[in-house]
Amino acid sequence: xxxxxxxxxxxxxxxxxxxxxxxxxxxxxxxxxxxxxxxxxxxxxxxxxxxxxxxxxxxxxxxxxxxxxxxxxxxxxxxxxxxxxxxxxxxxxxxxxxxxxxxxxxxxxxxxxxxxxxxxxxxxxxxxxxxxxxxxxxxxxxxxxxxxxxxxxxxxxxxxxxxxxxxxxxxxxxxxxxxxxxxxxxxxxxxxxxxxxxxxxxxxxxxxxxxxxxxxxxxxxxxxxxxx
Length: 228
Hints:
Pfam families: AKAP7_NLS (PF10469). Residues 20-216 form the A-kinase anchor protein 7-like phosphoesterase domain. This protein is an alpha+beta fold. It has helices at residues 2-6, 31-47, 73-94, 120-139, 163-167, and strands at 22-27, 62-68, 99-109, 113-118, 154-158, 185-191, 193-198, 210-216, 226-227. The longest helix is centred in the middle third of the chain and has 22 residues, at 73-94.
């Protein structure tokens, strides 16, 4: 680049992509789902104790809608506003009906991320909701470039959480560790809340992420949004 400048050529200014520090999530709080996830985690741990550090605490269970990089307090405020604005759009999609999210079976990405799957039918509806939220963030000019295509999945084990294992050559999680649960029904969660969570702030006492703002939607969504 210096050479280009020396030659008087334009150096294209690329906006550096900052790594995400916030995410928009749907919390999963149904006891049956969380208990079953704990059962699977326990089973995996008994078969492979080394994986303990790769297990995600059930208190943090959520579906990620988008990730964002919010560099200033001003941007955090804008994101809170964007989430509040999305409430009207989400309500319009739900049309006063409850959305039951059904979780069934276990899936994996590259044998490094293990998650509970969500039924195809519910995914369609949720994808529309995710799109509505995304639109509101884009309208506010917020950086959500780190977001991938929305594929709702409930992650409960991530090899990247235990980097030491990788260094010891642990590169794959064998499906034998959880095959008893591969086609098991986990439960149903009624969709009624969306959170704007901070990745790097201290978690709440409950163990869940620090929330800048939560909106209530669906039939229980009559209450207003909560803000920290």
